[in-house]
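Hi,

Apologies if this is the wrong queue. I'm a grad student, and the batch job for Si:ch211-51f19.1 from Acanthochromis polyacanthus produced an output file that my downstream script rejects. I'm not sure whether the problem is my script or the file. Here is the sequence I used:
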Amino acid sequence: MESFLQIAPHSLAIVLSRVGAGEAVGAARVSESDELPRHHTGYEIFADFKAENTQQHVWNQRITEAVSETFFLGWIDEHVLLIQGKEDHLEVLREGWMRRSLNPPRGFTIKYLGKA
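Support response: The file is valid. Your script probably expects a header line. Output copied below for reference.
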C-alpha cells in the first residue's frame, strides 16, 4: 500500500506539530513564555527549518545540501509545510527523517513526511 499522497510534483509535505508548554524540545523543557519562536508566516517556518538543518548538519553534507536546494512551496492548515526540490534531494530528506537526523523548525516536532 502506498503511504504517500502526491499533490504537486517534486514536492514534500512536512507535517509539523507545535511543541506545547512544558513539552521537551531536544533535551530542554520550555514554557510557552520561554524560547518558543513566534512564527508569523509559513515562509518564516521554512527559513527556520532550513537554518536548523544547515547549521546542525555540518557533519552530514547530504542533508545540508538537500535542505539548501529546496524551495518554499506553501503552508497549509497551520501545520503542513510544503517544500519543493529535485527528487534526489527530497529522498535525502526522507531518509534523514527516517534516521531521526532531520531537525524540525524551532518550536515544532515533525510528525511525518509525505509526497505533496
